[in-house]
Amino acid sequence: MRVRVIDAQITVTCTDGTVFTGSYRLATTLTDARRFPAAVLVDLYHQRWEHESAYYALRHTIMNGRLLRSGDPIGIEQEMWSLLTLYQALRTVIVDAAESLPGTDPDRCGFTIAFQAAPDQVIHAADVVTTTVKPVGLIGRRILSGLLPPRRQRVSTRKVKTPTSRYNGRCDSDGRPDASRTVTDLDVTILEPSDPLPALPTASRDDRHTAPGKRRRHRILALLQEDPTRLWQPRDIATHFGDVTLETMYRQLNRWAASGLIHKLGPGLYAATVWSPTPLA
After folding, report:
1. Cα dihedral sign for 223, 229, 233, 236?
2. pLDDT, tens digit (0-9, with 9 covering 90-100), for 209-222
3. CA-CA distance, 176 to 173, in Å (whole number)?
4. Which residues in 97-231 belong to E strands, given as ranges?
5. pTM of the model
6. Which of 34, 21, 26 is nearest to 4 (CA)?
């Protein structure tokens, strides 16, 4: 899988004045740096932990610790789909309610409030019949009336919880505080790659009069055959040899792919195919 790696150095200042710095590496499949700037992705990284809230809502808020009732795979699948449908429906109502008040973060909306308000529309038929179109219904109004305060930034070290043990949970010694502390300042510095790709030449080397075994086509086919499963990009190949421009590399690779010498598996992705190692004329 092709990924993009972002290195960042994060300095955290807590309410008690303590300061610590850590280096972090983020791997993402969002490879377009223009559409997805590194600083934005690093700032949004903590949002990925919101999926833990989804698991908690499914296991504890909706199921209240109960087990699935079905005793066969088909029934369990049906129950799971019903749970996920209910969860997504409530989340949709939460987002609609938050958007009705510009600037409201959906994180401030309580999932438990939405879940407890939902049965009122089913059991008591509350707020179902209305003569006017309202921006939010009963569930949305209850959510907005019980908004949580904005989430505060906090930091603590990673802990391994052992609820069945009478000993304290193990903490990873990474410089972060053992107890949760409120963050007052967060400074994120994106680290540039230490080994940028070398610049390609402005003109390609003319190898038409060289020996067949030393021509660019034969050398590139040999390179691709060394690792037939690797997907090569034109810039990677051009950088490897250093005697061809990127424009020439694209043009030659497309021509060789059209003739069947190599495989083109996608935009700018090439791989080896069956070929003879004898020098090509």
Report:
1. negative
2. 888 888 898 999 99
3. 7
4. 154-155, 159-160, 170-171, 181-191
5. 0.56
6. 26
